[in-house]
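Schema walkthrough. Field components (list of strings):
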Amino acid sequence: MPENRAVATDPQGMTPKTGRFFEDFRLGETLVHATPRTVTEGDASLYIALTGARHPLYCAAPAARQFGFRQQPLDDLLAFHIAFGKTVPDISVNAVANLGYADVQFLAPVYPGDTLTTQSEVIGLKQNSNGRTGIVYVLSRAHNQVQQPVLSWVRWVMVRKHDTAAPAPTPVIPDLPREVPPAALPGLDELDGSRFDPLLTGSDRRWEDYSPGERINHPAGMTIDPSDHTLATKLYQNTARVHFDQLAMQDSPMRQRLVYGGHVISICRALSYDGLENALLIRAINGGTHVNPTFAGDTIYCWSEILERWALPGRTDLGALRLRLVGLKNCPPSALASSHQGQTTDGGYHDAVVLDLDYSVIMPRHQ
Amino acid sequence: MPENRAVATDPQGMTPKTGRFFEDFRLGETLVHATPRTVTEGDASLYIALTGARHPLYCAAPAARQFGFRQQPLDDLLAFHIAFGKTVPDISVNAVANLGYADVQFLAPVYPGDTLTTQSEVIGLKQNSNGRTGIVYVLSRAHNQVQQPVLSWVRWVMVRKHDTAAPAPTPVIPDLPREVPPAALPGLDELDGSRFDPLLTGSDRRWEDYSPGERINHPAGMTIDPSDHTLATKLYQNTARVHFDQLAMQDSPMRQRLVYGGHVISICRALSYDGLENALLIRAINGGTHVNPTFAGDTIYCWSEILERWALPGRTDLGALRLRLVGLKNCPPSALASSHQGQTTDGGYHDAVVLDLDYSVIMPRHQ
Amino acid sequence: MPENRAVATDPQGMTPKTGRFFEDFRLGETLVHATPRTVTEGDASLYIALTGARHPLYCAAPAARQFGFRQQPLDDLLAFHIAFGKTVPDISVNAVANLGYADVQFLAPVYPGDTLTTQSEVIGLKQNSNGRTGIVYVLSRAHNQVQQPVLSWVRWVMVRKHDTAAPAPTPVIPDLPREVPPAALPGLDELDGSRFDPLLTGSDRRWEDYSPGERINHPAGMTIDPSDHTLATKLYQNTARVHFDQLAMQDSPMRQRLVYGGHVISICRALSYDGLENALLIRAINGGTHVNPTFAGDTIYCWSEILERWALPGRTDLGALRLRLVGLKNCPPSALASSHQGQTTDGGYHDAVVLDLDYSVIMPRHQ
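Field assembly_structure (string):
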C-alpha cells in the first residue's frame, strides 16, 4: 500500500490536451491520427456478438475465398468504425454535433492481421454566425500496413471555438459528390459473383429482383443494452466522452450517455439482412445523418428503400443497389408510412427516426 | 445527408419472409440452413467471458494436445450453440415453445478455423387438437468444411399454423432413444485419458469416485446481466425474437426478453465445474427441458446428480458418467431437496427450476 | 425431457470443496493452481472492448515489432489478471479482504498462443488477535509453456478460519520491498526505445518532460456497466463470488456485486493514456490498495502523480517513471485536491477514492 505523498503542484493539476477547437484547424493541413490498430479474428467475433451480423462473406471463410477474397475479410462497417475511431481525439472531441458523412468509399478489403492507420485533411472551414462555433470538413483516409488505401470518407462536424476572439477563417465549403457513381464503386476487381451460392443466405433474391421505389420493412428488432454499445465503442477506440461518462452526461440535456451512431448503423445493417440477404458488400455510403439520439434501452428497427438499381460497367455477375436505410427506435417500421412527421415530406423527421443512411451495396445477379 | 424521397410503394412495405409455419413442413424434407460460420479463437475467448468456463481442454492448448486433440478445440457447447443457431430462422422463428432435445451427439471436435454448416431433416409432425399449432420433430446435423459430421441432435418444437384451414398431416412421432448408450458415445478414439494430469483442474476425483444417486450442490452462483445473454445469443447468430426485442416482449406475458436456454445450459455447465472438475468432455445430451424462463437479473445456481456410471468398451483410461444437471434461479441448491414442488415427485417443478438436463460426460479413470 | 428420479442421498447433497481457510495454509508450502490458460488474440480484442485501452505496443503489431518484441504482446495488465485469476480458488475464495500487493514484476512479454500457469508460495502467516481470521502472504509466479517466468507478485489477504480452535501458527511477516528498484526493472533487454515514433500516440512528451511532484488530471471518465465488469472477470477465470452472485451479495453490507479491483486498475490505466500517452509499458507495481468498493453504475476517473523519475542503467533510449495512480468514482479529479479527507494527509481517504496504485512505467527518452 503506497503511503500518501504531499503533492507540490497545483491541486487542479496539469490537464492534458483534449483535442482541437475550431480556431486550431487550418485549411489544407493534414492530421496524422494516433493509435494504429492491428485488427484480428477477435475483433470479428466481437462484432458478431455486438450486432448479430450474418452477412456470409464476413463469417464464412470458404465463402469469402470462393468469392475472390484472399481470406475472410472484416465486416466493412467494423473496419470503418475502427478507422473512424482514430479521428475522434483530433477532430471531434470538442464537437457539438456530427453533421454528416459523404463519399464514404470501401476501397479494399481489410483482413485479420492488417494494421490500420488514419489521417485527415482539412478540406473546408466555415465559422458560424454566432461566432462561437464553426464547421470543419475533413477528408479522412485509412491505409493498411503496406500503405494501401482501404477506406476514405468525408465528414463535417460543428466544433466549439475556445477563443471566441480568434479571427474567422475565409469560408470554404467543399463541393461534395451526392453519391459515389456506379462506375466508381471500388474494390470489385478480384471478386466473382458467378460463384455466389444462394444456400449461403437461404435466399436467391438477387439484384434484378429489387426495384427502385420498393420498401422493405425488416421484421426484427434489437434492444441495445448498456454494455453492448460501450463495448463496441471501446473496441473501436473511439474516445468521445458522450458515449462513456454518465456523470458528465447526467447534466446534459440528454441526461444519459449517447449510443455511438456507428453502432446504430451496424445494428440496422444487421437487422436489414432479413429482406436484403444478398446485399453482400457495402461499397459506399453516399450520405447519412443521425436524426435523433439513441440511448441504452431503446429497441432499434429499420426499413430499407431501393433508391436506384445500377448495372456495373462490364459486369454480368454483380450489380449495385443504392439503398436508403431508415433506423427507428421503439417503433416497428410497419407503424410509420414515412420518416417524416406529417403527411407531406416537408415536415421534420418523426421522433422515432434515429438514422437516415444512403448507401450502396453489391448483389449477385442472376446469370 | 440524404434528401427525403417520396416512396411509391405501400406504406406497410414488403415484409420479408420470416420463417416457416406448421403447414410448411413436410415429413422427410431436408432444410439446408443458411449462414455457414467459421469459428475462431475469438469465439472461444468470448465464450469464456460469457460463461466463466474453466474446463481445461478448451482453454489450455498444451493440455488439449496432450490428451490427443490436434489442437485446442472449441467448447462442446459453444460449437453446439453456433450450429443450433443456424436452424432458428427455418425451424423455430414461429415456434410457440421449444419442447425438448434428444440424442444430441458430439461427434468430432470443432477447431478454430473450422466452418460449420447445419441441415435438418423433418422426422415427425403432429398437429395439435386445437388445430392452431403442431409439433415438428427435426434431426439436425452439423458438418465442418470437409463434410465431417461434428454434431447431430433431435429437437421438437411447437409451431403455429398460419393457415388454420391447411390440412393436418398424418401424425408421425419418431421413436427417440432415451439415451446415447455408452458403447455409442462418439469422438473418443483419438483421446488418451492416461495422460490426464490432475494439476490441470486441481482435483484428482475421477470416474470411479462418483456413485449413482450422489448429488452435488455446486457452490457458485452467477447473475445474468442484460448484455451478457444477448451478446452470447448474437454470437451464435440465433435470431429468435424473444431474446432481443424488448418492445415486442413487453406486451407478452413475460413482459421482458427471455434468456436463450442454451446460455443457461452453458452457465450451469460452467458452475458445475466445482465438484465435477474432471468432467472433461460432453459427448451426449440425452434429453433436456427448459422448465421455467430465465430473465436478465436472475442469479443461476445448479446441482448435479449422478444418474449412471458407465464403463466404456475397451477403455481403462476413460469412463462416462450420465448426469442430471438441474438449473435454479434465485435459489441456491441447498435450499431445495427436490426439483419438484411437493414431497413426492409427482407434483410439478419448483418455480426456481429453470433447466433439467440429462447428459453424458467423459472422465479420466484411476489407472 | 429427463424423468424425475428419486435421489437417495442427503437432500443437502455433497458440497464440493470451496477453497482454503486460514488454518489450511502452511508456511513455505507451494500451491500449484489449476486451469492453465492459452491466451489469444481474442483475449486481446476483448481487453480493448472492456477497457478502451490504446497503448500502441498492445494494439499495433508493427509498432510492437519495431520496438523489439517478437510479435504484439498482450497488455501487461491482461496477462496479470489472467495469471492472478488462477490463484483465487486456492487463496482468496474465503478471503475477507484483499489487503495489498507488492513487488509485482512483469518479467517477460506474454504473446498470443502462450499458455500461462501460476503457482504460489506461502511466505507469511499471522493470525489476527480476534482468533477468527488471519493474514496470508503469498508470492505467486506465472510461467509460460516453456517454463519461462513471465510475472511474479506478492499479495496478502485476510482469510477466515473455519475451525477457530485450530492453533495459531508462529507469526511470520515477510520483509517486502517498498519498490522494484530501477536497476531491477525487468524485461527491457530486447527493447529499443530509439525506434519509438511519436506518431504512434500523437504525443512527443517523453521521460525527460515529466517531473516528480507533477500531477496530471486525466480528463476522461468511464462508467462501468453490469456486463462489462463481469465479462472481464469471467474472461480472467477469476471465481471470487463477490463479483458474480447478486443473490448472495444482496444480503451483504454492500448489497450488490463488487467490481473486481483489477478491472478498476485496467480502466484507470486506460483513462490515464491522455496525459501519459508514452507510458508504453508497465514493468512493476510497487504497491496498491483498493480503497473503496466500485459498483456497476459508477463512473471512474483518475489522476496520476509523478513520484520518481529514474534513469535506467546503461540506457539512453528508455527511462522509468514511478507513478501514483489515484482512481476516483463519481468525482472528476479536478474536484479533489488530495486523495484524503482533510487538509492534512493524516485523515482517511475521501469516499470517492477507489484505487491508490504505485507503479513503474517505461517511457522513451529524447535522444
